[in-house]
Amino acid sequence: MTQEQYYSIEEVSITLKVAYLTVYRWIKSGKLRSFKAGKQYRISKEDLTNFIDNRPKK
Predict the structure, then answer these.
(1) pTM for this model (two decimals)
(2) 44 class by beta-carbon count within 10 Å (0-12 exposed, 13-18 middle, 19+ buried)
(3) Which CA distances in Å does 21 have to 1, 2, 3, 4?
(4) Of 22, 25, 32, 38, which one is least surrounded by beta carbons within 10 A?
(5) Residue 58 has pLDDT above 90, yes or no
């Protein structure tokens, strides 16, 4: 059995070098999939990888 890895908004913002609010807006707009655990959002490693891979390149 493999254990899935989940990230908080803060961890994602640090990883992607963007503001906390930017990640929150991506979640609210539906660009980044997440789920709410209590009062906190969690993003799975798979969803984060898909988001990164599908972002427009600069």
Answers:
(1) 0.86
(2) middle
(3) 34, 31, 28, 25
(4) 38
(5) no
